[in-house]
Automatic annotation (TrEMBL):
Keywords: Cell outer membrane, Lipid-binding, Lipoprotein, Membrane, Signal. One of its GO terms (cellular component) is cell outer membrane. Its main location: membrane. GO terms for biological process: response to stress. One of its GO terms (molecular function) is lipid binding. InterPro entries: Calycin (IPR012674), Lipocalin_ApoD (IPR022271), Lipocalin_bac (IPR002446), Lipocalin_Blc-like_dom (IPR047202), Lipocln_cytosolic_FA-bd_dom (IPR000566). This is Outer membrane lipoprotein Blc. Homodimer.
């Protein structure tokens, strides 16, 4: 990555962090969330499709988005976010490192971008078989629905939204991420 690209990416991530900090929460009187589950890190590793998110600058309008996690020997988690700006566009990637915070049951991570920018990442819930996961920021500004498959049925999606509501997230802000071209233009899905 060139210095110019790195500088632009760092600026974009700083802008995202600033925007997220300014975003309104569904109920600012709610205390920040804390880890409440145990995460089996080796089982959590691998590829996760981004089924839905509260869009922000860095992910808004992306299609075929997924995160790939790799656990390092030192306990850090390498993250590669793969996405496209359209199904006919080339795949792009963004890399970051997750620092699992001690004493949190592996559910609270600090994600480090470009070695300097950090964001909090909380695994809120995960299926017993690790087929889906709910991720959020403790202040409830951003949230994600992950699955091991690119498409999940509507009943499961609605049940996951209900779980997010239970954590205090404004699920009206969540939008589905198109994973296959047939999802483009459907209600509730982002547009590239």
């Amino acid at each position: 990555m060139s210095r110019r690209s790195l500088a632009l990416a760092a600026f974009a991530l700083a802008a995202v962090a600033a925007l997220a900090a300014c975003a309104s929460r569904p109920d600012s009187r709610l205390p920040p969330l804390t880890p409440s589950i145990e995460v089996d890190l080796p089982r959590f590793m691998g590829q996760w499709y981004v089924i839905a998110n509260i869009p922000y600058f860095g992910e808004r309008g992306n299609v075929a988005a997924r995160d790939i996690y790799t656990l390092n020997d030192d306990g850090e988690v390498d993250t590669v976010y793969r996405y496209r700006k359209g199904f006919d566009r080339p795949e792009k990637t963004t890399e970051s490192t997750g620092l699992v915070q001690p004493g949190t049951g592996n559910a609270f991570w600090r994600i480090r971008f470009f070695g300097v920018l950090k964001a909090d990442y909380l695994v809120l819930a995960v299926a017993d078989d690790y087929s889906w996961a709910l991720i959020g920021q403790p202040d409830r500004d951003l949230a994600w629905v992950f699955a091991r498959t690119p498409v999940i049925d509507d009943a499961l999606y609605e049940s996951l939204l209900e779980r997010l509501r239970g954590f205090g997230y404004d699920t009206g802000r969540l939008q589905r991420v198109p994973q296959v071209p047939e999802q483009l233009g459907k209600p509730g899905f982002q547009t590239p």
